[in-house]
Amino acid sequence: MRGFIGFIGFIVMLQGAMGFIGQTFFDGAWGLLAHWFELPSLAYVGIFAAGAALAVWGDVDKKRKQQRAGSGPE
User: Can you spell out the DSSP letters for 8-73?
Assistant: First the structure.
């Protein structure tokens, strides 16, 4: 499950980056979200930040679980 959260965070982060870059430097937002929603550039920055937070949370939680498994009773 932790790997899935990190993977979803990475996908959300890519959608936010593609939307922001496309809308700021080119004609329109890129990615899947642009087909469903009309979002301002700042919203895409927030989506990127939320995806980054999910990816970091999943990675930190996975490392914490590995440390707990290694420090168990012998």
Answer: HHHHHHHHHHHHHHHHHHSSS--SSHHHH----HHHHHHHHHHHHHHHHHHHHHHHHHHHHHHTS-
